[in-house]
Design goal:
Helix content: under 10%
Largest sheet: 21 strands, mixed
Structural class: mainly beta
Distance between the termini: 53 Å
Shape: globular
Strand content: 35-45%
Amino acid sequence: MDAHRILTTLAAMIFACVSPAANAGFTLKVEPGAFTIEHALQEARLRRLHEGGDKVVIRLQSGTYRLSQPIIIRPEDSGTTLIADGEVRISGGVAIKGWRKQGRLWVADVPEWNGRPLEFRQMWVNGRKAIRARDVDDLEKMWRIRNIDKSGEVLYVPAAAVKKILHARHAEMVLHEMWCIANLRIKSIEVTGDSAAVRFHNPESHVHFMHPWPSPMVTTNGRNSAFYLTNARELLDHPGEWFLDAQGQRLYYMPREGEDMTKAEVEVPALETLVKVEGTPDRRVTDVTIQGITFSHSTWMRPSIMGHAPLQAGMYMIEAYKIKPQISRPDGDHKLDNQGWVGRPSAAIAVDGARNVVITDCVVTHCASTAIDIHQYATDCQVSNCDLLDIGGTGILAGTFGPEGHEAHLPYQPTDMSSICTGLRIINNRIDDAANEDWGCLGIGAGYVRGIRIEHNEVSNVSYTGISLGWGWNQQTCAMADNLVRGNYIHHYARHMYDTAGIYTLGAQPHTFIEENVVTDIYTPGYVHDPEHWFYLYTDEGSSYITLRNNWTPSEKYLRNANGPGNTWENNGPQVADSIKVRAGLPFNRK
């Protein structure tokens, strides 16, 4: 039997309904455990080829759809709507069952996934995120480093800090570095007196110690960089903590009060990306809508394999080093003291090569890294009316931050400007509890974009900056222009990191407006190295040709750092009209 007949037979099993009007399109219904979403997309492609019809609606019936690979939406799927009928969850997770008591702990065997041992860095119990075993329950009690030897690639810490993990094989250090954290896999610990020399695995060790910014801080005021230790069974000593013995494929957990592990629903993530919208520069995915679906439990394993040493906004460094002596740059930019090249973290929903792709009324939750990423060759796409909750990295990421071969401080002006994300609308979304794994990530982050509209979103409980717009650290005009950040409500930001703002900009962006936003309620973590270095609005290096007006903030605590020409500041601060405060954030039908 050929592929077409097989797919047609399967389609009948799930009540495929064809519209009677010629070429008017058709509808497919999909139920969990029967006809997969992948098969529905394939059936729709074949019907288009044989029967015509531009519009296809795939209606997902209530239930949970567990994925073994990403759903890929291709140019052949243009004109498709993927919509939920009822409560629909698409999950990249695996349920962990068969818990048994072992002293104060509970233990379960971890199943293989797709024929190989399953590893993960997150776990949820009854929908609540558990804590990967670490040395401190209260982050305000983190240890601080004592000194740093960059040439020897050594951090010196108090010996008492590492006494529990001297024999742990796969322990990690999470190091606070001004506006980023570094995830460093520990290679060795050598104790001498009351200090310990800690060395780390490559590639992250070499990258981390060569680059100058951000850097571990050793200060004269005692505010050296803070750190915590994780991923060792010896650290599993507080309720709500877990540890995975990856080699033994056993999972250990210390329950919180009231948790009955014989009945608990325990979920771990297995798949990095749940949905890929994947066109090409010459053949885009067009006119696709994803509506009303909950996406959950995506992973990101690079920190376990290669560590994680970011430059900013979660973009990890591939190579970086200091320049001595500093080099001069054109057009008024101050001298440059380093070079670096960055990579991009994974995302639960990733969009490339698309036109008029709309993600609306969806929930994205329990993600290890970015929730929604609209990257490049994307035009007139939209993310609207979505709730992004419990996100390890950035809530919504937009535009390229430069290809991996592009040095991060150079202005980016590609020959093919169609690669630049253009006309994206990020509207009426709620983003809460973002950057809870990688503290240096954002509520909404946009790199090299044109004509982006970020309007009436609410961003709260984010570990670093609420909305970040731009990239490049230089004032030369490049791919960025015509951007708008308006009417957003940003509150309870900088939960863990400073050198931050509610709204932050980088680089030259002609005809860009930041207006009628409300920024308030910053966290005050005690472990940051410079507790005064935070702002409501922050135009950083090279920010040029940007107008900031009518933004309400409790005070005029702003920073203009190494800005270029053409910026305008008008009527920002507590005197801004109450009507602007009332209108900011989600519309009333979303609040």
